[in-house]
Amino acid sequence: MILVTGATGNVGGELVNQLLDGGHDVRAYIRNPDKAGQLPDSAQIAIGDLDDTEALHKAAEGVDVIFFMQTTPVPAQAQNVVDAAKATGVHRIVVLSSIGTILHPRPIIGEMINARDDVLRDSEVAITYLRPNTLSTNALWWKDSIAKEGKVYDPTEPGLTSPIDPYDIARVAAVVCAESGHEGNGYILNGPEALSAKEQVQILADVLGRDIEFVSVTPEQFAQSSIERGTPETQARGLQNLHELFRAGRSGFLADDVENLTGTPARTFRQWCEQHRSDFS
Ligand SMILES: NC(=O)c1ccc[n+]([C@@H]2O[C@H](COP(=O)([O-])OP(=O)(O)OC[C@H]3O[C@@H](n4cnc5c(N)ncnc54)[C@H](OP(=O)(O)O)[C@@H]3O)[C@@H](O)[C@H]2O)c1
Question: Side-chain half-sphere of 98: how many Cα atoms within 13 Å?
Answer without folding.
Answer: 23
